[in-house]
Amino acid sequence: MSSPNETGLPEGWEVRRSNTKNLPYYFHPETKDSRWEPPVGTDPDKLKAYMANKHSSTRLPNPASFEVPEGKIRAAHLLVKHRDSRRPASWREAKITRSSAEAMEIIKDYESKIQKGETTLSELATTESDCSSARKGGDLGFFGKGDMQKEFEDAAFNLEKGAVSGIVSTASGLHLIQRLE
Question: Which fold has domain 63-179?
Fold first, then answer.
């Protein structure tokens, strides 16, 4: 178990790994409370550093090791939430208070860095995405038509393999999407 000083979590909370989703989550053994988002009182900078070092994986599966399911694509994304998002909380922040304009500035900066080749979507998603898929470099796995929000789905299905979308707005927040398969 890691100390609160290392994880940034409030006293009594720890990071565990889900057996079913193989993703980290937050657990308080005394109260038996568990959640995907960090508890109130978390230090987001310490948690971000801890999760990047201990619980993230930017390694994507070898494409030769599986077949693409018919009618499905595989994509990764980087999500920036704002206070008007349908769930204004994430693994990085228990309560997201930034405005949609502030979120737009943040994601424009990420988009610029990716376009300039300074970083990849997967690298940025690992530490900056407000989605739990950050632990997998933003990889959402395979999905078909009707599985995602319409705006997200339309953008993802219209991308060529390897391409990164422009900024896509959904009820969840602002996304950059990369089609993987």
Answer: Chitinase A; domain 3 (3.10.50)
